[in-house]
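Action item from last meeting closed. Structure (213 res):
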Protein backbone atom coordinates (compact mmCIF):
# COMPACT_ATOMS: atom_id res chain seq x y z
CA UNK A 1 0.00 0.00 0.00
CA UNK A 2 1.14 3.53 -0.73
CA UNK A 3 2.18 5.63 2.23
CA UNK A 4 1.90 9.39 1.83
CA UNK A 5 4.01 11.61 4.07
CA UNK A 6 1.85 14.71 4.12
CA UNK A 7 2.85 18.10 5.49
CA UNK A 8 -0.20 20.15 6.40
CA UNK A 9 -0.89 23.17 4.20
CA UNK A 10 1.57 22.12 1.51
CA UNK A 11 1.87 20.84 -2.03
CA UNK A 12 1.49 17.31 -0.72
CA UNK A 13 -2.27 17.90 -0.74
CA UNK A 14 -1.95 17.09 -4.45
CA UNK A 15 -1.05 13.49 -3.70
CA UNK A 16 -3.86 12.90 -1.23
CA UNK A 17 -6.34 14.38 -3.70
CA UNK A 18 -4.92 12.30 -6.57
CA UNK A 19 -5.34 9.07 -4.62
CA UNK A 20 -8.92 9.99 -3.82
CA UNK A 21 -9.64 10.70 -7.50
CA UNK A 22 -8.18 7.31 -8.43
CA UNK A 23 -9.93 5.52 -5.54
CA UNK A 24 -6.62 4.14 -4.30
CA UNK A 25 -5.97 2.77 -0.84
CA UNK A 26 -3.20 4.59 1.00
CA UNK A 27 -1.79 5.25 4.44
CA UNK A 28 -1.53 8.89 5.44
CA UNK A 29 1.21 10.12 7.76
CA UNK A 30 0.57 13.69 8.91
CA UNK A 31 3.22 16.26 9.77
CA UNK A 32 2.72 19.82 10.99
CA UNK A 33 4.74 22.94 10.35
CA UNK A 34 6.80 24.64 13.04
CA UNK A 35 4.46 27.29 14.49
CA UNK A 36 7.16 29.97 14.37
CA UNK A 37 9.18 29.29 11.23
CA UNK A 38 6.34 27.62 9.28
CA UNK A 39 8.94 25.11 8.04
CA UNK A 40 8.64 21.34 7.99
CA UNK A 41 9.54 19.37 11.13
CA UNK A 42 12.76 17.38 11.73
CA UNK A 43 10.91 14.11 11.07
CA UNK A 44 10.59 15.02 7.39
CA UNK A 45 14.27 15.98 7.22
CA UNK A 46 15.13 12.56 8.61
CA UNK A 47 13.04 10.99 5.87
CA UNK A 48 14.43 12.96 2.91
CA UNK A 49 17.53 15.20 2.66
CA UNK A 50 15.51 18.25 1.56
CA UNK A 51 13.05 17.83 4.41
CA UNK A 52 10.10 18.68 2.20
CA UNK A 53 6.77 17.10 1.41
CA UNK A 54 5.32 15.27 -0.35
CA UNK A 55 7.21 12.04 -0.01
CA UNK A 56 5.70 8.64 -0.71
CA UNK A 57 6.73 5.11 0.12
CA UNK A 58 5.74 2.28 -2.18
CA UNK A 59 7.36 -0.91 -0.98
CA UNK A 60 11.10 -0.23 -1.00
CA UNK A 61 10.67 2.94 -3.07
CA UNK A 62 10.98 6.38 -1.50
CA UNK A 63 10.01 9.18 -3.89
CA UNK A 64 9.79 12.96 -3.49
CA UNK A 65 8.70 15.87 -5.75
CA UNK A 66 4.96 16.22 -6.29
CA UNK A 67 5.03 16.15 -10.11
CA UNK A 68 7.18 13.01 -10.14
CA UNK A 69 4.90 11.38 -7.57
CA UNK A 70 1.76 12.25 -9.56
CA UNK A 71 3.21 10.72 -12.73
CA UNK A 72 4.46 7.67 -10.85
CA UNK A 73 1.11 6.96 -9.19
CA UNK A 74 -0.85 7.47 -12.40
CA UNK A 75 1.37 5.04 -14.29
CA UNK A 76 1.92 2.39 -11.63
CA UNK A 77 -1.36 2.44 -9.71
CA UNK A 78 -3.82 4.44 -11.79
CA UNK A 79 -3.77 2.57 -15.10
CA UNK A 80 -2.93 5.82 -16.87
CA UNK A 81 -6.06 7.62 -15.71
CA UNK A 82 -6.12 11.41 -15.36
CA UNK A 83 -3.51 11.93 -18.08
CA UNK A 84 -3.93 12.30 -21.83
CA UNK A 85 -2.20 9.97 -24.24
CA UNK A 86 0.00 11.15 -27.14
CA UNK A 87 -2.81 10.43 -29.59
CA UNK A 88 -5.24 12.75 -27.82
CA UNK A 89 -5.76 16.13 -29.56
CA UNK A 90 -5.15 17.93 -26.24
CA UNK A 91 -2.04 15.96 -25.32
CA UNK A 92 0.41 18.86 -25.77
CA UNK A 93 -1.95 21.18 -23.90
CA UNK A 94 -2.09 18.70 -21.04
CA UNK A 95 1.72 18.53 -20.88
CA UNK A 96 2.03 22.32 -20.91
CA UNK A 97 -0.38 22.93 -18.07
CA UNK A 98 0.83 19.96 -16.04
CA UNK A 99 4.33 21.46 -16.00
CA UNK A 100 3.10 25.08 -15.83
CA UNK A 101 2.27 24.72 -12.14
CA UNK A 102 5.82 24.10 -10.90
CA UNK A 103 7.48 25.79 -13.85
CA UNK A 104 5.72 29.17 -13.74
CA UNK A 105 2.83 29.59 -11.34
CA UNK A 106 4.31 28.32 -8.07
CA UNK A 107 7.80 29.83 -8.60
CA UNK A 108 6.49 33.34 -9.24
CA UNK A 109 4.22 33.12 -6.22
CA UNK A 110 7.17 32.07 -4.06
CA UNK A 111 9.30 34.93 -5.39
CA UNK A 112 6.50 37.40 -4.76
CA UNK A 113 6.00 36.10 -1.23
CA UNK A 114 9.73 36.23 -0.45
CA UNK A 115 10.12 39.78 -1.74
CA UNK A 116 7.05 40.97 0.14
CA UNK A 117 8.42 39.52 3.36
CA UNK A 118 11.70 41.37 2.78
CA UNK A 119 9.80 44.65 3.32
CA UNK A 120 11.13 46.20 0.15
CA UNK A 121 9.78 49.56 -1.04
CA UNK A 122 6.72 49.08 -3.23
CA UNK A 123 8.60 50.51 -6.22
CA UNK A 124 11.68 48.30 -5.76
CA UNK A 125 12.68 46.93 -9.21
CA UNK A 126 12.73 43.29 -8.07
CA UNK A 127 9.28 43.56 -6.50
CA UNK A 128 7.86 45.47 -9.45
CA UNK A 129 9.15 43.01 -12.04
CA UNK A 130 7.92 40.03 -10.01
CA UNK A 131 4.50 41.61 -9.54
CA UNK A 132 4.30 42.22 -13.29
CA UNK A 133 5.29 38.62 -13.98
CA UNK A 134 2.65 37.35 -11.56
CA UNK A 135 0.03 39.50 -13.26
CA UNK A 136 1.01 37.99 -16.63
CA UNK A 137 0.85 34.45 -15.27
CA UNK A 138 -2.56 34.95 -13.66
CA UNK A 139 -3.87 36.63 -16.81
CA UNK A 140 -2.80 33.57 -18.79
CA UNK A 141 -4.56 31.25 -16.32
CA UNK A 142 -7.70 33.41 -16.44
CA UNK A 143 -7.68 33.33 -20.24
CA UNK A 144 -7.22 29.57 -20.35
CA UNK A 145 -10.04 28.89 -17.90
CA UNK A 146 -12.27 31.14 -19.95
CA UNK A 147 -11.64 28.91 -22.96
CA UNK A 148 -12.12 25.50 -21.34
CA UNK A 149 -13.58 24.12 -18.11
CA UNK A 150 -10.27 22.49 -17.14
CA UNK A 151 -6.62 23.24 -17.81
CA UNK A 152 -6.15 20.50 -20.41
CA UNK A 153 -9.51 21.10 -22.07
CA UNK A 154 -12.88 19.45 -21.55
CA UNK A 155 -11.53 16.72 -19.26
CA UNK A 156 -10.42 16.93 -15.65
CA UNK A 157 -6.80 15.71 -15.50
CA UNK A 158 -3.71 15.70 -13.34
CA UNK A 159 -2.92 19.14 -14.77
CA UNK A 160 -5.72 20.44 -12.56
CA UNK A 161 -4.41 18.59 -9.54
CA UNK A 162 -1.01 20.18 -10.09
CA UNK A 163 -2.29 23.77 -10.43
CA UNK A 164 -5.01 24.05 -7.79
CA UNK A 165 -2.67 24.26 -4.78
CA UNK A 166 -1.13 27.49 -6.07
CA UNK A 167 -4.58 29.01 -6.58
CA UNK A 168 -5.92 27.97 -3.18
CA UNK A 169 -3.76 26.84 -0.24
CA UNK A 170 -0.74 28.89 -1.35
CA UNK A 171 -2.84 31.98 -0.66
CA UNK A 172 -2.48 31.23 3.06
CA UNK A 173 1.17 32.23 2.63
CA UNK A 174 0.74 34.90 -0.07
CA UNK A 175 -2.78 36.39 -0.21
CA UNK A 176 -4.19 37.11 -3.65
CA UNK A 177 -7.36 38.91 -4.64
CA UNK A 178 -9.18 37.05 -7.41
CA UNK A 179 -12.09 39.49 -7.64
CA UNK A 180 -11.00 40.52 -11.15
CA UNK A 181 -10.54 36.91 -12.29
CA UNK A 182 -14.07 35.52 -12.75
CA UNK A 183 -12.97 32.46 -14.73
CA UNK A 184 -10.48 31.42 -12.03
CA UNK A 185 -13.16 31.82 -9.37
CA UNK A 186 -15.70 29.79 -11.37
CA UNK A 187 -13.09 27.11 -11.95
CA UNK A 188 -12.31 26.85 -8.24
CA UNK A 189 -16.00 26.45 -7.53
CA UNK A 190 -16.11 23.53 -9.98
CA UNK A 191 -13.11 21.96 -8.28
CA UNK A 192 -14.70 22.43 -4.87
CA UNK A 193 -17.72 20.44 -6.00
CA UNK A 194 -15.64 17.35 -6.72
CA UNK A 195 -16.25 14.70 -4.04
CA UNK A 196 -12.65 13.45 -4.29
CA UNK A 197 -11.29 16.95 -3.71
CA UNK A 198 -13.49 17.40 -0.66
CA UNK A 199 -12.46 14.01 0.72
CA UNK A 200 -8.78 14.64 0.11
CA UNK A 201 -8.79 18.05 1.75
CA UNK A 202 -10.78 16.77 4.74
CA UNK A 203 -8.38 13.89 5.28
CA UNK A 204 -5.19 15.84 4.65
CA UNK A 205 -6.05 19.23 6.13
CA UNK A 206 -9.14 18.93 8.33
CA UNK A 207 -8.41 22.31 9.91
CA UNK A 208 -8.46 24.14 6.58
CA UNK A 209 -11.41 25.64 4.74
CA UNK A 210 -10.24 25.61 1.09
CA UNK A 211 -9.90 29.07 -0.46
CA UNK A 212 -12.21 28.58 -3.43
CA UNK A 213 -13.18 32.16 -4.19
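Sequence:
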Amino acid sequence: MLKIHHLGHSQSERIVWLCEELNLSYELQHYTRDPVTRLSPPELKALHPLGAAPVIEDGDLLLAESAAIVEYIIETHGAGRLKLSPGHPDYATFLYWFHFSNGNLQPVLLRFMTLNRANLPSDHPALTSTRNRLDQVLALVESRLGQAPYFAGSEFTAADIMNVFSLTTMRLFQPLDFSTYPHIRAYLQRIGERPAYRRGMTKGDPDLIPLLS
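Note appended to the action item: The mean pLDDT is 95.
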